[in-house]
Amino acid sequence: MKGTVYMDKSKIKRLADYAVRQCCDNSDNCYWSVSYDELYHHFGAEVSDTNENGRLLEEELRQREEINELIMTEDCIEMTCHLQYCHNCQTDPVSLLSVLGCNIYDEHETEHHHEPANESSDEDQMQALTM
């Protein structure tokens, strides 16, 4: 990007506010990405993973309590927010379980069909008693 203009701290904060808000308000699983094109479209900000604006924005986002993880890729900022800040995760129990790594359709489908932990025959039990 030729002629990149470095942004002041207040503009960096506005970009970070936007990215955090997008992640916390729109995500169904605490994960969200914001493209550099999107930031340019909304704010006229030239941000990339290799320029100073990107470095400053990354630094600002890493300081935000809402953000759990952050990766600056060549196209966008990928981030996860902490569960307590993800509004959709708090209201949708299925989404909440997916965040926790629980697939209820596979794991809980057979919930009431438990197999005994130790299958032993009557003969095995009798042998154990006589020992």
User: Looking across the biggest beta sheet, what order are the strands in?
Assistant: 1-3-2
Q: Largest sheet, if any? A: 3 strands, antiparallel
Low-confidence stretches: 95-118
Q: What is Rg? A: 24 Å
Q: Could you explain the architecture of this structure?
A:
With 131 residues, the chain is an alpha+beta fold. Helices cover 47% and strands 13% of the residues. It is built from 7 helices and 3 strands. A 3-stranded antiparallel β-sheet has the order 1-3-2. Helix 1 crosses helix 3. The longest helix has 18 residues. The termini are far apart. 20% of the residues are buried.
Summarize the structure.
The protein is α+β, with helices and mostly antiparallel strands.
Ordered list of secondary-structure elements with their pairings:
Blueprint: H1 9-26, E1 31-35, H2 36-43, H3 52-62, E2 67-72, E3 76-81, H4 87-91, H5 93-99, H6 104-107, H7 122-130
Antiparallel strand pairs: 1-3, 2-3
Helix pairs in contact: 1-3
Provide the descriptors you would attach to this structure in a database record.
single chain, 131 residues, 7 helices, alpha+beta
